[in-house]
Amino acid sequence: MPYTHTDPSGLSRYGWTGTLDQTFTEHYDAGLVPARISRVDRGLCTAITASGPTRATFAAPYPPDPLLTPCTGDWAALRPGTEPHLVALLPRHSAIVRSSASRSSHGQMLAANVDTVVIALSLATPLDAAKLERLLTLAWESGAQPVIVLTKADLAHDPTAVHAEAAALAPGVDVLVTSAATGDNIDVLAAMMHGTTVLLGPSGAGKSTLGNTLLGEELLATGTVRERDGKGRHITVRRELLPLPGGGVLIDTPGLRGISLHDAADGLEQVFAEIEELATSCRFGDCSHDTEPGCAVQAAIEAGELPERRLRSYHKLRRENAWAASRTDARLREEHVNRQKAITSHLRATYRFRDQQP
């Protein structure tokens, strides 16, 4: 009998719904079962099925593309048996993607089918506005709802001032001051999370400690940070999905040192909404907000309504995103040309073979 989302002991605690169940009909007919990927490492993944977790193989896409490779949070069609194998991925309703650490034209998937992005930043170190803007861009671009969580309030000198600074950088985003050590606002954070929640942030931000507090037990590895700069070692080395005691699931991720953008135009518009709004009042439609006359953005800076640092960050991230997009376009054009060459070569070989027949 096909699994349905009404089974409380099955996949419902991992986010399976009636809508997903209906889209799975053709896979049921093929003898496949639904599964959610909780962890991926080197050609194998841990997949959660209605009967429990299993290790499964999957075929890497060709040509290689990280965005088409199974990722933590993906829903998949699994062929069960003595050697379980992932046959297909279900369409993602959201995805957190950054540029590959190798600086290739491919994006790197951080998590799939996410509903809430918890951006964790430590109050034990000064707030890095540029890093927060990058993390917010990733979050908004994914289609999920970001929440900024300022951790380690017990080590902070003035958490109220940092809260105000973060809130000014992220209009429309909830900002919460927490402490896993004292339990401050952990219950508030738990109530704000829904569906699938991913923890994002730099090493040393206390993501795994926060995750363990939310999970109610020590399931995630934690480590210490250096006192001189507040940075931590990469204790979390892979993404992992775990069910939360109050419902929903949590994805912990390794600390992000590099946060390069990949096709994140919509996210940038959301993060820098005030600049986008001011730009509509510029005299010229293609205003670069530099030295053009009638620039509403520069006028706001001169009036003290917009920090100049904010505009510099906006320009930098837009240039970076445009460069990543151009790299992707070039790769797609090259792949198209290579496919056409392969087809032409195959046809020529076919014609030669046919012409050589008696």
Topology (elements, then pairings):
Layout: H1 18-23, H2 25-29, E1 33-41, E2 44-49, E3 52-58, E4 75-79, E5 85-89, E6 95-99, E7 107-112, E8 116-122, H3 129-142, E9 145-151, H4 159-169, E10 174-177, H5 186-192, E11 196-200, H6 207-215, E12 240-243, E13 249-252, H7 265-271, H8 273-279, H9 296-302, H10 308-356
Parallel strand pairs: 3-5, 8-9, 8-11, 9-10, 11-13
Antiparallel strand pairs: 1-2, 1-4, 2-3, 4-5, 6-7, 12-13
Binding site for Zn(2+): 282, 287, 289, 295
InterPro entries: G_CP_dom, P-loop_NTPase, Ribosome_biogen_GTPase_RsgA, RsgA_GTPase_dom
Binding site for GTP: 151-154, 201-209
Explained architecture:
Zn(2+) binds at residues 282, 287, 289, 295. It comes from Micromonospora sagamiensis. It is found in: Cytoplasm. There is one protein chain. This protein is an alpha/beta fold. Helix content is 34%, strand content 21%. Among the domains are: 11-91, Nucleic acid-binding proteins (OB fold (Dihydrolipoamide Acetyltransferase, E2P)); 96-252, P-loop containing nucleotide triphosphate hydrolases (Rossmann fold), CATH 3.40.50. The strands form 3 sheets. A 6-stranded mixed β-sheet has the order 10-9-8-11-13-12, sandwiched between helices. Strands 1-2-3-5-4 form a 5-stranded mixed beta barrel. Strands 6-7 form a two-stranded antiparallel sheet.
